[in-house]
Amino acid sequence: MFIMLRCPKCGEKLTDEGRSFICPNHHCYDKAKSGYVNLLLSNQMKTKLPGDNKLMVQARKSFLDKGYYEILAKTLQNSVKEHAFAGCKILDAGCGEGYYTEKIGEAVSGIASEIVGIDISKCAAEYAARRTKSALFAVASVFRLPIETESCDILTTLFAPYCGEEFQRVLKREVTMIMVIPSERHLWQLKCAVYDEPYQNDVKSFDLSGFELIKRDTICGNIDISCNEDIISLFSMTPYFYKTSEENQQRLVKIESLTTEIGFEMLTYKKL
Ligand SMILES: C[S@@+](CC[C@H](N)C(=O)[O-])C[C@H]1O[C@@H](n2cnc3c(N)ncnc32)[C@H](O)[C@@H]1O
Ligand SMILES: [Zn+2]
User: Fold this and answer.
1) Residue 136 lies in a domain
2) Residue 4 forms part of a structural domain
3) Total structural domains within the chain
4) Does a structural domain hold residue 135?
5) Is residue 43 within 8 Å of 179, Cβ to Cβ?
6) Could you tell me if residue 1 is inside a domain?
7) Atom of ligand 1 nearest to the CA of 92
8) Which of 29, 38, 47, 101 could join 139 in a cystine, given CB atoms 3.0 to 4.6 angstroms apart?
9) What are 220-266's pLDDT values in tens digits?
10) Which ligand is nearest to the CA of 25?
11) Which of 160, 203, 187 is nearest to 244 (CA)?
12) What pTM does this model have?
């Protein structure tokens, strides 16, 4: 039973009818075989296949499943658990292929009543739905969430686009939003291996209108990547992949092992 979802056409509540979701105005959205539901209307799509493509989704899955970012997953689990309560409803906005959504599901198993993962990439939703049944995955944009107003108790957003207005709308008052962003030196040695003049990530102010920052966890460490396949996967799941010349990308093909810094800012906010 998913009570957070609303119809992207008319905004009425969607009811889970087993194979599809239906609103009182008879708008019907079939579930894919894997279980996700596509709630992205064709007039909301700027491109034919928006969001991360199959190559990026597969690269992210392959890399994350090897546990390289386990340190982040654990901190996220602890934080979500701290804010969760019986019957709470959780939204993972821009969930990708569901690695962290699954981790959230494990952390609040038997506590949360509903977990929904939203991503604009159909491919990501497909992979996520195959990964875990602890959440429902829907294809939609964070800029137009098919989620009921003030229905959500915890919202997580990891390395994904931010839409303050929509996040404010779907969250209840005084509840939690957990945001994860890369810190300045995240993947520094990977960038040094590719670029002649690497630059540090630009970390913007943590102030967000309508939210109060209540906690900042800085997570950092080093990861040893001992095979070329994983190095390529890591690079392919970053935004640098499409911004890097063929010549610079070729530099990675020759590297068999790499130790790189990783760094994340986990920011916990309260909706005001
Ligand atoms: C860097 S990935 C992060 C995925 C996941 N949160 C993780 O950390 O593994 C960013 C994700 O945002 C999705 N995305 C991009 N634009 C979006 C939008 N407007 N609405 C929803 N998702 C979007 C992409 O398809 C991609 O899966
Ligand atoms: Zn409808």
Assistant:
1) yes
2) no
3) 1
4) yes
5) no
6) no
7) 6
8) 38
9) 999 999 999 999 999 999 888 778 888 888 888 889 999 999 999 99
10) 2
11) 187
12) 0.96
